[in-house]
Each structure stands twice: as C-alpha cells, then as structure tokens.
Amino acid sequence: MADNLRALFSSNDPSAFDVSEAFTDRNSQWVLVAAALEEHLRRTTGPAFAVEDLEAPRTNVLVFHGVGGVGKSTLLRKIEAALTAAEHRPEQWGAPTWTDRVLPIRIDLSRAASTGSDFERVILTIRLALAGALGRPMPSFDVALRNYWEHVHPGEPLDEYIRRSGLAGKFAEMLPQQLQAGVGEVAAALALPGLVGSAAGQLTSALVNALRERHERAQALAGATRTAALLEATPDLEALSYYPHLLAWDLSQLPAKTRIVPVVLLDTFEDTADRHRDFERLLQRLVWLMPGTFFVIGGRSRLPWADPALHGQLDWTGPAAWPGLVSSSASLTVPQPRTAGSGARQFLIGDLSPEDCETHLARRLVQDGQPLISADIRAAITARSHGLPLHLDLAVSRFLEIRRSGRTPTPADFDCTFPALLARALSDLTPEERHLLRSVALLDAFDLNLATRTAGLAQQAPARRLTERPLVNENPYALWPYHLHRAIRSAVRDDQHSDDRWTPADWHQAAARALAALGEQWTTATTLGPSRLLLVACLRQGLRLARDHRLTDLGWLTAAAHAYTDDSVWEPLALPTDTSTEPASDTPADALAELLTTIARRQHEHRQRTADRLTAVLDSGLLPTELAEMGLYYRAKAYKDLSLNDAARTGMQQVADSGGRYAPRALRGLANLARLAGDFPTALAAVPALGWKGRHHRVLGDIHWSQADTAQAVTAFEAGRAEAEQHGAAGERAMMQVRLALAVSFADPARADDELALAHQLLDGLDQRSNTLLAQVVALIKDAGTSNVLDRAHNLHRDVENAGLPFLHRFVELALAFHHAVRGEHRDLAATIDRLRALTATGDFAYFTDIAHFMAALPLPEPSAIRWTTSEDHVRSSWRGLVQARQEHLRAGN
User: What is the dihedral sign for C-alpha 429, 432, 434, 440?
Assistant: First the structure.
C-alpha cells in the first residue's frame, strides 16, 4: 500500500496510470500453509488431542524465513486476506479443503509497529480479534486478564489503554465489555453476584477457592487443571505469559457450532531477538500453551527452537519438542505438496523466478491497459534484481522518479543497486558481521574458514553467526557450502553510501587475504592427495580476485596453473572474460587468466583463434618466464594441429632448449613431429629420454600402430593408461584409452567395441575435443567394410572442420581407405588416396598415403621418403594382413 501511495503522489495527474499491488504468485507457499493448516485442523478435532497436554511435541507452527525484502510480509498479508474471505484469495491459490471456521490474526512485531515489542500488545491483539469474532467472553482468561490489569495498570482503564496504544478498532469497545461479562459469568457460577463490581482480586480469590473445593459450576466454567495455580500466582508479566493456556482452554470449551480456530501470523519475528531472548521466550510460551491455535511466523532467520543448545534460554527446546523445526529442514525450499503437511515446518522463502519478476513489473504500473514499464527495462530490472522483490519495488520507484524529472527511462538507468536494499540487509548486523559480509562479498562461495581468513579474524564464531542469516544461502553438497544472495552481494560491492563503507585500499587488502586463504586451502589439500575439484574452484576464485583487484604477486596461482594443465581435463574456468575481442591485459593476473582461459577454450574454438590469443598474451610480456613457456608450448601444439609444423617445431625446440618444466613435453612434441614427417627411427630414439612427463608410452604406441604392429601398440598404450592411473591423471588415461581403441580397431572390431565404450566413459566430462573426434574415427575403422560408413565420414569431416583440427581429416580419410580396401572398391580407394595425397602434400602424415597403398596391395607410384623402423615390405605385409583379416571376419559373420 505504501508503494501505491508513493506512486499516486509521484505525478500531478493521478489518472496518468493505474497503480496496483502486483502480488506475485507464491502459490507453493500457500500450498504449504493450506496443507499444514488442514492437518492441524484434523489433528485438533481428533479424540487424541488434549489442549492441556503440555508434553506432546508441537506441530502448530509454520515458519517462513528469508532475506529482507524477499516478500515475507507481503506473503503473510496475503495469507491473512485469503483466510479472511474467498474474494481476497488469489485465483491461482485455489480454494481450501477444510470447512472449519478459522480466524486470521496478523501481528507485526517490528520495532516500528510495536514500541518495545510489548508482549501485552500481542495478547490484547489476539483477545480483541476473538472478541469481534465470537462476541462472547472467555471466562477463565478474562478473569485472569482483569486481575493482571488491575495489578499492573492500577487506575488505567483497559479501554483507554487500547485507544492510546493504537490497538483501537471496531472491536475495541467489545473487549472491556466482554471482560465484565466474563466476571459476571464467574460470579453467577459461584452464586456470588455481589462480586461483579468488586475488585478483581476478590473475585479471583473466590474463584480459586471454588476450584480448590471442586465447586461443580466453577469447574464447568473455568475448570482447566492449572487455572487455580495460575490465578494464585503474582499477576505480573511472567504470569501473563502463561495465561494463553487459559485462553486455549476457553476456546476448547466452545460449542461445536461456534468453534473457531485462530491462525496467528507473527510478522517480522527477527525484531524479537535480543541477547537474552526475553521476549522470544514469552512468544514461545504463547505458541506452546495454545496447541489448538495455528501460528505462521515470518522472519529473516530460521526459528532455532529445535536446537538443544538453547536449553535454559527458552522453556521448550530440542527436536523432540519441535520436530518440524529441526535445522535440516531449515535450508529446504518448498517441498512437494504431498509432504508439506506432515514433516518440515520451516521453509526458506526463495527469490522470484524471472517470469514472476516480469509479471510483477508488467502489472505494477499500467497505462491505458498496457504496462507502463517497457519490456527492455523490465528485462534489465529483472536481471539486476536476482529475483529479490525489494529490488523490484525500488526499481519501480526509480522509474517514477526519472519520469517525474521529465526524462524517459532507459534500461541503462537500472544497471545499478540501491542503497536502501543494502541498508535493509545491514540493519540488524553487528559491526563484526558487517565486516564479514563485505569480506565474503569478494567470494563466489566460501566456508567458515575461508570467510574468517578473508575477514582477517581469529575466531570462526562471527562467520558462523553470519551464515545463519538469511542473506547467506547454503548448499550443503557444494565444495564451499555458503554464498551470499546475489542481489545483496552486488549491493555490498557497489556500496558508496554506508557510513562504514570500505575504501579501495580496504577492498584490496581483503582481496589479498582472500587469495592467500584460497591458496592455503589448495596447498593443504594437495598434501593429502590431489583434488581436481578443489583445484579448479580455487583457480576460478583466485584468478578473478587477482585480476579484478590487480594483485601483482601471483604466488600459488602459478603452481595451480601448472597442475591445471597437467591433467588435460580442461574444465571451463568460467571467468567473465570477453572472448570476442583481443584481451586488454595489463597485469600478470590478467595475462594468466587469459592464458588459462585460452588453453581451456581451445577445445571449443578454432585452433587459429587459440594461436592468435596465445600470441597476444605472449607479446604482452606480462607472464613470468615459466608461464611464458606454458604459452609457447600450447601455441606450438596449436600450430601442429593446424598443420603449421615448421612453426610448431620452432616453438617446441625453443621450449625444449629452455630446460624448464615444459621441456619434456616439448621433447615429446618434437618426437611426434618427427613421426608426422615419416622419420620413425628418430621418433623412436627419443622415447627413452621422455619418461612419464614426456608421455613416453603414448609416443611409443603411436609409432607402433602406424606400422600396423598392433600387439606392440596395445602393450604401450596399456602401460601408458596404467601409468596415468598411478599418477591420477584422468585426462592422460582417457587419451591412452582412445589410442588403444584406435590400435585395436584395425585388427579386432569386437574388442574395439569394448575399448571404445570405455574410452567414451573416460572422456565423459573431460572436454577433450580432439580425442572425442578421434574416438569417432575409431568407430569408423571398427565398422569398416559395413554400410553407412560413408555418410558418417562425411559428417565427421564437417565436425573436424568446425573444430579447427585439420590434422584429423587425414585420419578420416585413412579410415575410408581401410573401408574401401576391405570392400575391394578400387575406384573409391583411388579417390581416397588422391585426397590423402593432397592433405599430406606438406610432408606431414605422408605415410598415411603409403599405408593406403599397402592396404590394397598397390605399388607406390614412386619411391617413398618414409623411414620405417622395420623394412617397408614388412610394414606393407602387416597392413595388407589387417585388411585380409577384416574380410575374413566379415565373411564369417555372413
């Protein structure tokens, strides 16, 4: 309503546009309320329910908690309206299934609405609502309340207090009258009509005596087991907090036709919190002592009553007392309706979906039946809000302010955060928690240790308290379980108005602490064993911190970068880098981020794009020497994939000559380049010096399969796979398996099927594009001689071209040569050989052309320059033997 009034007074023309309260669905929360209330009504009308049972667990409470501005108060107001009258219930919510009469009573516990958070106001609000709904006294409770009032507020009439305190309403005059009527009922029951106008204490004493003496009419009227004890107690605030037990008894004694079930909605429950929980203790008694009343509580934090640690601070604590409020349910979002009525009673109010945000903004302001806020502005607001309703309402206010200035709003006007949103988030945080909030705003996700170290604190307790706030979301299954609500995080980082806002130096120092803390987590974990998940997560956060805050000391990031490339897994680092333009790197962190992003993205980009980006990074001169070697090596690999082998050899030789970390890889690269040029003896001679770091088994296996020595190739690749497993190198293991399948595919299609299946399994999630495409070549080879090979080969050529991996075209043509040789298709084979000759005109992979001749027992048109490790005749015989074996296999299958 306040937003509506602000909009109404934002223009000289009140008819310029229509303003409406655009409440957004929240149907799932209504489903929860309806299901829980239905179960409550069923339970309280059952024979086992006893209003005086003070030991049974309580399930008469439902809690909605969430960050400030997420819409809890709006939800409770809508629930109140929906329970009041059907016409106020949103159509999408549907009609309730119960027939019982319910009485919604919403009480705002905020400091602004309730000075001092007065428990008296809560009790009087409930009693006033019952006065209007029932029109009759509550004898037990009314006698106790009158006695309390005369002792605590001597000389102050109750009706005058009600008017003065702002509780006055259409039922304000009824409560004093009903109290007087209640006294009359009690006096009549005791056959003491003279007590009606006497002091409350006299009547109370008479009633207590009658109850003690088991006076039949007194017990029928006010016969709760504990009524006498309550009336004998000193009538103070402590006693008042137990009087709801009497009210619950009075309600339970109503005739069936007048039975009513109060639904008390306690809004802004977080404002009851204090260090000693004094007011919260009184409210908990209210809930516990009125088991027939249903309570819906809205607040920023989950209700911790099921926590045994609160024993002594509250009267009833622990999961046995409050089974629906256990902490495991507090982090849940809305469950399916079938479980809503019987288990959890505590739910996080989530953000609105983009669709709901759009609906809210479209309906909020309307002109001539059309949304006043244009679609592009609605999209901009929705994206910036991250689903937070408060952000939407603030954006609507900004929209009206801009229009009032005479300017037409644009989407750029809403690429901002709002100080009011941050003020709401910070309002109930301690100074220590505010410091922590800003610290963790640097992090995408965090745990207690990471938050504590980033904030520069010595104890984790403040971080633990912060994580219990609703502005921190939790995913218990994530590596780091906590993260700030995205809208709050943006507001914190953009803060220019708070009194305690940070300076740029403060942010820089906190970023340095965060980077160091991430490094400690990673280095500590590596001593226990490699964790790829932690490595990538630390790199993502660390690179962004170092880049965004211009941290010049890369520290542990250098070692982590090497570890990232060692496994050849290539998870995306997901840094917010614009890959459509050349990087504008001006710090080492910028350069490292671009280097690793480029290496990872080469699985999804044309290799020429990879080479160009790496050249730009290297030319910047920002990388330290060992990281520059990484860039040189991967650029040389890109050149090799592009068949620019002279450039590849130059780069590999430069890295090998440096003798650094990448020298073994560069030596392998040179050996592979020798093999590609047809110089197998040179490649073979390099193998002993390569070792594990140079992937010696991979180089050896590639030499053997190229000469149709399947057994030796399989042995090498199996040894390489085992060595990769020993080193925990998932990427290398997958590469070895693909090559093993390749070697087997020519000789044993049945085994190749199994090996290829394992290769796909090992490749899953590794993002190795070239090896994934090579696995498709293997599938062609194992199916050579059958139908449908040509169409698959055509599609594979297209995928290879799109990937920017031209060297794989030769593998596809080699597979086709094998296929045509098996089928005796001489004309098609000749065409394939012509294509291979064109593809190998530079000299690289020229031995593929020779192999194609060998497969079909064709003479070479001219002497070959290929240097095999055995005689040419032996290689020819071996390849021809594989073709003949496949022909026999196919004949046997037919």
Answer: negative
Q: What is the pLDDT of residue 583?
A: 43
CA angle 724, 726, 732 (to 5 degrees): 15
What is d(CA 356, CA 23) in angstroms, rounded to the nearest whole number? 9
Helices and strands (H, E) in the chain, number of each type: 42, 10
Question: Could you tell me which residues come within 8 angstroms of residue 230 by beta carbon, excluding any fewer than 6 positions away?
Answer: 144, 239, 242, 243, 245, 246
- Which phi and psi (to 5°) does residue 880 adopt? -65, -35
Q: Judge whether 710 and 747 are in contact, CB under 8 Å.
A: yes
Q: Give pLDDT, residue 580.
A: 37
To which H or E segment does residue 348 belong? Answer: strand 346-348
Residue 677: name the closest of 877, 868, 872 by CA.
868
CA nearest neighbour of 162 among 136, 134, 123:
123
- Are the beta carbons of 313 and 276 closer than 8 angstroms? yes
CA 741 to chain centre: 39
Rounded distance between C-alpha atoms, residue 659 and residue 281, angstroms = 72
- pLDDT at residue number 271: 75
Cα–Cα nearest to 113, from 149, 84, 76, 138 = 76
Per the rule left: phi > 0, alpha: psi between -120 and 50, beta: everything else, 312 is left
Say which DSSP state 486 is in.
Answer: H
Q: Which residues of the chain have pLDDT under 50?
A: 1-2, 22-23, 112-117, 193, 195-196, 328-342, 578-584
Alpha-carbon distances of 812 from 543, 626, 680, 795, rounded to whole Å: 39, 37, 22, 10
User: What per-residue confidence (pLDDT) applies to 3?
Assistant: 52
Give CA–CA dist 413/397, Å, rounded.
Answer: 12
Count the helix, strand and coil residues of the chain and give each as a percent rounded to the nearest 5: 60, 5, 35
Which residues does residue 102 pair with via DSSP β-bridges, in sequence order? Answer: 261
Angle between helices 431-440 and 486-493 (to 10 degrees): 100
For residue 707, give Cα distances in angstroms to 123, 701, 876, 882.
92, 10, 8, 11
Where does residue 788 fall: left (phi above 0), alpha (psi -120 to 50 degrees), or beta otherwise? left
Measured distance CA(304)–CA(874) in Å, rounded = 80
Q: 422: closest CA among 444, 398, 441? A: 441
What pLDDT does residue 176 have? 66
Rounded to whole angstroms, how far apart are CA atoms 747 and 709?
10
Contact in structure between 363 and 371 (CB atoms under 8 Å): yes
For the chain, report the end-to-end CA distance as a whole number of angstroms: 82
Contact indicator for 650, 677 with CB cutoff of 8 Å: no
Residue 758 host element (H or E): helix 749-763
What's the CA gap between 554 and 539, in Å, rounded? 11
Report d(CA 701, CA 89) in Å as an integer. 73
How confident is the model at residue 1, as a pLDDT?
A: 45
Q: What is the CA radius of gyration of the chain?
A: 39
Sign of CA dihedral 403, 405, 409, 412: negative
Which of 586, 580, 654, 587 minimizes the C-alpha distance to 612? 580
Contact 541, 453 (CB under 8 A): no
Q: Which of 352, 405, 351, 413 is nearest to 377 (CA)?
A: 413
Alpha-carbon distance of 221 to 136, in angstroms, equals: 13
Supply φ then ψ for residue 786, to 5 degrees. -105, 180
